[in-house]
Design goal:
By secondary structure, this protein is α/β, with parallel strands linked by helices. The protein has one domain (20-299): Rossmann fold, CATH 3.40.50.300. 38% of the residues lie in helices and 19% in strands. The protein has ten helices and nine strands. A nine-stranded mixed beta sheet has the order 3-2-4-5-1-6-7-8-9, sandwiched between helices. Helix 1 (20-26) packs across helix 9.
Length: 300
């Protein structure tokens, strides 16, 4: 009980989600970084966005969701409605609190948990699953879904890769290391107050390669890092996930890198033309996908 009287917190969200172009203008991410995410999401990578309170995790989750192909079937799962995407085949679901005396299971009558929603979502065979925030036993279901080929995008409270692994392998979640290896990328976000009150930055983008089953030590590949002195993003190491994608699809790494560069230029051109509304940007991304498919068919 608050000893100085009732208190409350108001969480304000923008009426329109922040588009990839606006994230570039805000300095939250670089064009190269977003082109990289775009390519990975198209090829069904699972991404976990982590950080402290008010670091822009959910906003960036919404931004990345715009890169999902328009024809994909998407299920989003939240306890507070925050995700908003203009995809036609998007099924938004919401957890619900129960009422009355808790049953022997610990749940109240009429309660629908994130765990319940996740279990049901995978039965619908979605192309992508978006979980607003992962924090409890629902993580086990989500990672099982990842391991069975369902790409998931979600947020998580943690400040580093090691903290993520520690929390995932500790109660109440207690994931086995083999399941954690289903996760492709961890995005670490920070509230960069020294750059402005509303400034958010991606501190690091890290690819997960393996997790030791005995020590829980993670082998990771940092791809991008934020330089706080220059307020720029630097490429740290070459992506291992791109190599995995081309090996699985029978493509060439050179072609994948060229495609990412094309998408980088495409996003840059939208920025130069002042096209940044989330609906408009999503339409252009849809157009890009359509043109790419036509070009691929023409080459056959």
């Amino acid at each position: 009980m608050a000893t100085r009287g009732p208190t409350f917190t108001i969480r304000k969200f923008t009426a329109k989600p922040i588009s990839p172009i606006e994230q570039i203008e805000l300095g939250t991410a670089s064009t190269e970084m977003l082109a990289y995410f775009w390519y990975l999401i198209e090829h069904k990578a699972s991404i976990l966005i982590v950080g402290g309170v008010a670091t822009g995790k959910t906003s960036f989750l919404n931004t990345l969701s715009m890169f999902i192909p328009s024809e994909a079937k998407i299920v989003s799962i939240e306890d507070t409605r925050e995700i908003k995407i203009p995809h036609e085949h998007w099924i938004p679901t919401l957890a619900r609190t129960g009422f009355g005396i808790p049953m022997p299971t610990g749940e109240k009558y009429g309660e629908v948990t994130l765990f319940d929603l996740l279990k049901e979502s995978f039965r619908q065979n979605p192309d992508y699953v978006i979980v607003g925030e992962t924090r409890g036993k629902e993580a086990y279901v989500m990672f099982q879904g990842m391991s069975s080929g369902h790409p998931c995008l979600s947020t998580f409270h943690a400040g580093s890769v090691d903290t993520v692994i520690k929390r995932l392998t500790s109660p109440p979640i207690e994931l086995p290391p083999t399941l954690i290896e289903s996760l492709d990328v961890i995005v670490i976000m920070v509230h960069a107050k020294e750059k402005g009150e509303s400034a958010r930055r991606i501190k690091e983008v890290v690819e997960i390669q393996s997790v030791d089953p005995k020590t829980n030590e993670v082998k990771a590949n940092p791809v991008f890092r934020w330089n706080p002195t220059k307020d720029t993003y630097e490429k740290f190491y070459e992506s291992t996930k791109l190599k995995e994608i081309v090996e699985e699809t029978g493509g060439k790494l050179e072609d994948a890198l060229k495609e990412i560069k094309r998408r980088e230029k495409f996003l840059e051109s939208l920025k130069e033309k002042g096209i940044k509304d989330f609906v408009e940007v999503t339409k252009y991304i849809k157009f890009y996908y359509k043109q790419t498919k036509i070009l691929k068919k023409g080459k056959r």
